[in-house]
Amino acid sequence: MPVRPITPGALRAELAARLAAAVPPGGRLRVAVDGAPPAHPGELAAGLVEPLRAAGHHAVHVATADYLRPASLRLEFGRTDPDAFYTDWLDEQGLRREVLLPAGPGGTGRVLPALFDAARDRATRAPYVTLPPGGVVLVSGAFLLGGTLPFDLTVHLELSAAALARATPPGEAWTLPAYARYADEVGPAAVADVVVRCDRPGRPALVDAAR
């Protein structure tokens, strides 16, 4: 598969064009922007909102950091358990119910951008937004692929194990086994529709993944 160095701005423009072309007639597009925090999936997803809107597609960005489970559930085995971090932190049921199903075929388009404030350990009380037909919802975060979450198009921001270890703050090094497990069990670079290699900060390289 060809790998093309690309500037961050050109990457946003090319991805926005691809997403706009993938929106089904009269429907909506559900996009995963998957990656560990050092790959900055939230930054890329947020950067796609305006280009999509300029192309005539209303877009909403939802970060998985706003869809974590309550502390009593996600921290049941402690604050630094990598297996719990991998399997128990994200409220997949809430994300599916409040974002992915409403944005899917036959859905209402009534999307909740944020469900839970992990810092305060309580619901956000954020207002719902309406995603009209032709709209795009961009969900950013880690561990989004290979499971049961219903996405229409997936983007994976790939970091080598060495690059991820270098970019991860020492206090978060306990998460590295979780990302290694994800790479081994899911192989996100093999299942994503689009792969962006992010080993060199500010100098991404675009790969079109073959399915």
UniProtKB/TrEMBL annotation:
Single GO molecular function: kinase activity
Taxonomy, superkingdom: Bacteria
Keyword annotations of the record: Kinase, Transferase
InterPro entries given in the database record: P-loop_NTPase
Protein name, entry field: Uridine kinase
Native species: Spirilliplanes yamanashiensis
